[in-house]
Amino acid sequence: MHKALHFLRGKQKILLQIALSLLFVGLGVYFFRHEEAEIPKVIDALKVARIPWMIAGVALLIGFIVVQGLMYVYSFKAIDRKIGLVTAMALYLKRNLISVFLPAGLLTNMFFFTGELERKEGVTKTDTYFASSIFSINSILSSVIIGIPALIWLLLKSKLSGGMVLGIVLIALFMGLVIYAIRDIRSGGPWYHYLDRKMPSLSEILSNLRQNAFDQRSFWKVLLLSCVIELIGISHLYISMEALDLPASWSAAIIGYAIVLVLLMSSPFLRGVGVIEVALTYALTLFGLTTIEAISVAMLFRFFEFWSLLIIGAILLVFQRGSLLVRVFPALLLFALGLVNIFSAITPAIPARMHVLADYLPLAAINASTYFVLFSGVLMLGVGAYLLRGLRNAWWMAVILSALSLITHLTKGIDYEEALVALIVLVSLLIERKHYFIHNDLALARLSFFPGLVVLVGVLAFGTIGFYFINVRHFNADFTLLASLKESATSLLLLNVDLVPVTRFAKEFLYGMHFLGGASLAYLAFLSLRPLVIRSKSHSEDREKAKVLVSRYGNSPLDYFKSYDDKSFWFSEDGEAMVAYKTSRTYAIVLENPVCKDEASMVEVIRQFEQWCRDNGLRTAWYRIPEHSLATYEQLGKKSLPVGEDANVDLTQFNLQGAGKKALRNVLNRLEKEGFTFHTYDPPQTDRLLQQLQAVSGDWLKETDRSELVFSQGLFDVDELREQQVFTIENTQGKIVGFVNIIPCTTPGMANFDLMRRTHDAPNGVMDYLFVRMFERLRDQGFTQCNLGMVPMSGIDDPENIQERIIKLAYERIRQFSHYKSLRFFKEKFEPGWEMMYLVYNEPFDLIYIPGALEKVMEP
Questions:
Q1: Would you kindly state where each structural domain of the chain is located, as residue ranges?
Q2: How does pLDDT run across 326-347, given as a tens digit for each residue?
Q3: Strand segments (E) across 486-637
Q4: Greatest mean pLDDT among 178-192, 310-324, 791-805
């Protein structure tokens, strides 16, 4: 519950945006249902639109895209970077498409298509982020600049309501506040210092903006171009009225567009679908247009300003492969088709088409097609979420639903427009089919099949009994047993379109059957879409085989943990290579490099393992890959993200001489004067010593409020520690106040340790003392190096992309990760060498799920 509340608090803005957007969609649905008798007249009005004005609208649409591209060009120019106009226009169209479906405003500009710009134009991802921020800020400012005067004019001319007046005042205050805040932050004033304390990530961004070269003239050009965009929007609304041969006025266009801007700012998710059409229709009726005329204008305007841009962006993405959107795009299209199906089902068909269709199909088939379109639309909204995760069954279900939608849109009213959308979705699914290979959990499906069957039979029996014994007056029908069974089955499948309830009780009974049927079908769909969770259990013989390979080919400080009890093992076909991994849902998380003969054979081992994972419906991620091995993975087309630096102390050079080691010398002298002593315990360890070590470990876990972690480290295991060398610090009474255990290391000349723990009452500097004496003892034993392990999130001095920037900011500014800085400070006392470690993955989309998978595999 605590985690759920924490999640909700952290996502309040996004959840509010989604809630508002869904409310707006609902208002749109209600409006069109209420006006369904007028919709055919609207369609007739659109059919007779004047061609010259339509051409003018399309020309302005082209100009709109060009100006948006120029905004990006000058946004980059503002930070002394250049990109081509064609690239900029394509960037806008693709970002516009994805921003419709994803909430949280600037996330789109910061995350999507940065790699593409880096490849094509040579600008860094950080530059793209800054330029995108300039673009977004000016887009918002122009909306305020154009929108407020229009609403003030309406206030003077039309006597706005008190609520609208309050809205104008608040927006004006907001605009003034934004301008003041920008100037204050640019000059490093109080707002900047406040943000530096309260929102370090934002202050870091603005600090970099202040420090980078910034061309104010280009910035103002971006703002001017953004205002041109708003003027094009006003012109599109005016042209929409002229195209339909209606009395057009610039005042109506200006006010209508101002209302659109206000709604867009309050509904960034789904771009105000539904509510803009409603509000714009109402506004236009105030200027003398009838409801039919106003709806027609609103529809044509939204085509110019919304739907056409969406279609062009979708076409661009269909023909561009290898990007993040390759994984997201089919799911977004399916989501869009779901909305199209729902709207199509609840709006009336065109009478002329229905007359033609009635000559070929019975009315029952037409009605059944309509109900299927509605039901499939709702189902698509849910299937899309599973499609994002790459489930093969979700892909099959999406293909079937899209294909059936293609057919039923034609059989319910010859709706070839909606059928075309279904065809586009179907083609995109077929093109990107290789991305959907995650299997469903057949074991869970089999286990749940009988309960599911019981539920279906129970609902069917309930409906049959209900229809058989229900009074004739409720449906004006006396159902036989066979008829009752038939009506129950059709109600269960939401297909009883010819059954008309007469009384309120009949309606409630029918609604209840529909609810039970929908819930039962959703339960069955859930079973078929549940992703396979592989819980690999390694056998003792596999572990022994892994240990043999580690001893033969191992060359890493992490090799000891590759044969740890928590690991599963994959062996190459010749048995000469091994991969140690753990599974979390649909991911196989691999610990470091494969254990194999040499770097040359590692490429083929990785290929074989990746194919095995794909055959078993698993995605892969490789954790803690050292920098010297990164080229091998890049050769295979993989991507990487730095996750921390690994430290190694050169024991041959380590000493306590020099001013930099004065603090260490003082610690050693102080603790030895207080009677603390260093001890070495060779295996096998006694039960008495192990009990003392366990007490220290438990005290440390309690004091630091931590729990044991595994995967790339070990936990306190009595059986393991019994066979390992242990170094301790003890007080004058012989009580252990700190210890370190030495674990086997396959790297020649390198020593490695696992646990480093101390009691809560141990004196300051006790671990410094322990490590200095440990280094000396290891050197005496013939070791030349000692691995100190990785400091997570550290070492990213010059971030190259937004992901690295987020890690750097979190490490430096977020209190939750401050102990990593303390760990870095502790290890730097011994002047180690550092090597960056990486997380290697396949697609940018994987970064959404890998953090959760890593957290899971690190649990004991």
A1: 53-244+253-261+305-320, 332-432, 442-524, 540-638, 646-846
A2: 667 788 888 888 888 888 877 7
A3: 568-571, 578-584, 587-591, 619-626
A4: 791-805
